[in-house]
Structure formats: C-alpha cells, structure tokens
Amino acid sequence: MKLTFLGTGTSTGVPSIACDCETCLSDDPRDKRLRTSILIEHAGKTILVDTSSDFRQQALRAKIGRLDAVLITHCHVDHVFGLDDIRPLNFRYGAMPIFANEIAWIDLRRIFQYIFKPTHFGGGLPQLIPHTVYNNAPFCIGAIEITPLEVIHGKLPVIAYRFNDFAYATDLNFISDDTIAGLQGLEVLVLDCVRLKPHSTHLGLNEALEYAERINAKQTFLTHLNHDVLYARDAGLLPDGVQFAVDGLVIES
C-alpha cells in the first residue's frame, strides 16, 4: 500500500495570508503546507481522502491520472471545496463514487446544491455516485478493506478511515475507546495535530502524542499542522516512531 500526503496544512494553509511569522517566512519546503488530504494506492485502486480547497494544485503536483473513489471525512470548507475539480476525471472516466457519513451528506447536498438539484445547464457538473458510510461498518474498494471509525471534532462526528493496516484520523479532539480499539495493529497512523499548544477542536501536540501512544502504530505521522509548527525547530520534540508529515511525502508498506 502506498500513501501520499497531498497536503498537511490547517484550514488557512501554510504560509498563511498576511502572516510574517517564522514558519510562514521559512524557505524550508517542509514548512509549505497545502490543505490536508491524502491519496491511497493499492492493488490497482486509487482513493482520494477529501477534496481539499487545494485539490487541483495537489492533483497536478502528484500527477493524479485516475481515481476510483473519493472518501470524505467531514464537510468543512478546507476538506471539500475542491469537489468541483473532479470534473476532468468525470470527463474521462464517468461518474465518481463518493463516500461520506449521513451528517456530511446533508451539508454536501446543501453547499453543492447546484450538483444535486441543478437549475441550470452548461459548463459541466461533477458526476457523483453517493454512498453513505457508517461507523465500524467495513466496505471494500477492490482489495482494500476500508473501515470507517467515528472521532469527534469539537461536537461534530468525523470519519477516520482505516485501510487494511493504514489509518487516517484528522480533524478531531476526542477518540473513543471503541475507536482506539479499532485502530490497533496498524503499520501507519496519520493523526491530527494542529499546533504545539492545546486547541478546542483539534489535538495539540501533547494530546496527539498521548493518543499515538495508546494506538501504538509502528509509525505515526502528524498532520493538519498550522504555522505554530516550524519543522526544523520542532521535529526534535517528537519521540521515536512519530514524525511531522510533509507535503509530497510517500509512505509504502
């Protein structure tokens, strides 16, 4: 299985507009973070998790030529506002299967009403095949078994996804014991960590490390990083087996 980090940044991206902090002014490419998204490739199937606001740029950079499905973690702007940019893939390959929980589908149908209740024609609309996912109810795309696992982002239920022995859990500040149990035995865990300090709806560094220790994956990569994290300065804060993710990083197992 191959995992590519298309973006590892928080909702504003890094650098952030009009910011002159040390991270935003950094020349280190590890401090350049598009909005958070990953690509999973295995056994001839390619799956995108979240159509981030930067999806077009990410797809061109990663040379994405085909997708078999899109999984949505939740319906916040930075995770879904690139949805319209799947149209070129529709032009070539037809309708795209899209997976999300019931809460996310309510918001997706409202925000993207022009897709689901078109009132005008011309210019092309994304062609979607909607699927609803449920907590701890596995499904398969090819040889990839995918298990949706619920985490909490403030008060919002968000879907973390387990792909065989990889898992992706972003935008959260609470993981239940049941979900912790569902994340055991991982080779790779990708986990939310918005900044070094605590946060009301995300994990700060200490909280992220506590969950990483409980889940005990062989490798843990922290993502959804804001400009509080300067890679060269802060990477030394992490224990063995834990790293800050960077845009473009590829993990294979």
Polypeptide structure, described:
With 253 residues, the protein is α/β, with parallel strands linked by helices. The chain has eight helices and 14 strands. The strands form two sheets. It has a seven-stranded mixed β-sheet with strand order 6-5-4-3-2-1-14. A seven-stranded mixed β-sheet has the order 7-8-9-10-11-12-13, with helices on one face. Strand 11 (188-192), helix 7 and strand 12 (219-223) form a beta-alpha-beta unit. The longest helix is centred in the C-terminal third of the chain and has 11 residues, at 205-215. The termini are close together.
Question: Layout of SSEs?
Answer:
Elements: E1 2-7, E2 37-42, E3 45-49, H1 55-62, E4 69-71, H2 77-80, H3 87-93, E5 96-100, H4 102-111, H5 113-116, E6 128-132, E7 139-141, E8 144-153, E9 156-163, E10 166-169, H6 177-182, E11 188-192, H7 205-215, E12 219-223, H8 231-234, E13 242-244, E14 250-252
Parallel strand pairs: 3-4, 4-5, 5-6, 10-11, 11-12, 12-13
Antiparallel strand pairs: 1-2, 1-14, 2-3, 7-8, 8-9, 9-10
Number of helices: 8
Poorly predicted spans = none
* Count of extended strands: 14
Order of helices and strands: EEEHEHHEHHEEEEEHEHEHEE
**Shape designation:** globular
* CATH-derived topology: Metallo-beta-lactamase, Chain A
Query: What number of structural domains do the residues give?
Result: 1
Give me the Rg, rounded.
17 Å
Overall helicity:
10-25%
- Any guess at the CATH architecture? 4-Layer Sandwich
